[in-house]
Amino acid sequence: MFSSSRRPLRAYLPSPYIHTISTTSGEGLCWFLSGAANTTAYSSAELVYKYGNLSEGVCKPGYAAAKMTAIYPKFMKPAPMFLDRNFKRLAKVRNYLPPFGFKTQERIIDSILTATKNYGLGEVLDSLGCKRCIIVGNGGILANKSLGSRIDDYDIVVRLNEAPVTGFGKDVGTKTTMRITYPEGAIQKPERYEKDSLFVFSAFKPLDFKWLRQMVFKEKLRGTEGFWKSVAHYVPREPTEMRILNPYFIQEAAFQFIGLPLNNGLMGKGNIPTLGTVAITMALHNCDEVVVAGFGYDMNMPHAPLHYYETVKMSAIKESWTHNISKEKEFLRKLVKANIITDLTNGI
Questions:
Q1: Where primarily located (predicted)?
Q2: Alpha-carbon gap, residue 118 to 311, rounded angstroms
Q3: pLDDT of residue 152
């Protein structure tokens, strides 16, 4: 369940916080009170008692969820990372149009999921009793930090859009568990895709699902009208390596966490969270520890690089029509301040 470098958690935690259940293999499995089955909010003192004696590097089961419920009491950990064949049962998203749900897209999603056949992270990662996840942003703040080996040490490494790995391994690592993207953000050159990573699709409009279907079934892209910039014409991934991100994470980040305008559940001015915050929200539900790197824009440094992989400067940022960067930053700072997430580059 744990790598050989990690000491058994039973040695660190007081027995009142541990229950043992039997698994199919007959081995005992530690199940903590703040795990998926129970999201009771704990006081700071209880959290210190529960996790305070763990040595650095030991995964803390249920930690992110326990911390999250302390400041967001309505936070419920169980939320599937990806859509599966039972997606129509997801009551919180079935009545919303994209990006906050999948209303009107049920038939096309069904056809896509029939082809992908897989709806998890894979047997090894899905079986981990405790998951340490890192969301790697694209910010220039990653440059010259030499965090690559540290990033690669996490169980799950999440990357966003077309941010490259090749040539930047010293600072951003070389491991990619999944790459979350959408049509306009996807890598357009097939040779730039890393091997063995999941292609995770996040839809922001109905047209996006049509694009994904063409990528899954290796069909010729039939027109690009309706996209706001050029899109990939081919994704070098087998259908079994593709996933559809649960749109609940977009909805929850926007309306419950950041407090963006509902706009009758439709995409509007300033009510779409950035993909990075969506990824963090996903991780809070599905990972026990959540770490970020490469997040944050410092507008007081207009000549600093915007991204770690190009020379565009910070001053190139313009006011976004779809995002509310300032409100989003408030939310992320709240997570860092409450020790729900750890920011390796201190940019938030």
A1: Golgi
A2: 39
A3: 98
- For residues 103 and 97, is the Cβ–Cβ distance under 8 A? yes
The C-alpha atoms of residue 132 and residue 156 are separated, in whole angstroms, by 6
Residues 6+ apart with CB under 8 A from 91: none
d(CA 8, CA 54): 10
Convert the pLDDT of each residue in 77-101 to its tens digit.
889 999 999 999 999 999 999 999 9
Provide the strand spans (E) within 143-234.
Answer: 156-160, 178-181, 198-201
Residues 6+ apart with CB under 8 A from 13: 30, 32, 50, 51, 53, 54
Close Cβ partners of 182 (under 8 Å, ≥ 6 residues apart) = 161, 201, 202, 203, 204, 208, 275
Taking alpha carbons only, the member of 253, 299, 340 closest to residue 140 is: 299
DSSP string, 42-104: --HHHHHHHHTTPPTT---TTHHHHHHHHH-TT------SB--TTGGG-TTTTTS-TTT--TT
CA dist 100 to 206, 214, 249, 261, 285, Å? Answer: 11, 22, 8, 12, 17
CB distance 323 to 274 below 8 Å: yes
Give all domains of the chain, ordered by start, each with its CATH number.
1-78 (no CATH), 79-343 (3.90.1480.20)
Residue pointed to by tokens 């409009």: 205
Whether 209 and 98 have beta carbons less than 8 Å apart is answered as yes
Task: Give the start-end residues of each E strand in 152-278.
Answer: 156-160, 178-181, 198-201, 242-244
Strands 132-136 vs 156-160: parallel, antiparallel or unpaired? parallel
Q: Between residues 212 and 52, which one has the greater pLDDT?
A: 212
Distance CA 136, CA 134 (A): 6
Token pair 């906050």 is found at 100
304, exposed or middle or buried, with CB in 10 Å at 0-12, 13-18, 19+?
A: middle
Residue 14 confidence (pLDDT): 34
- Residues 143-187: tens digit of each pLDDT: 999 999 999 999 999 999 999 999 999 999 999 999 999 999 999
For residue 25, pLDDT over 60 is answered with no
Q: Enter the pTM of the model.
A: 0.85
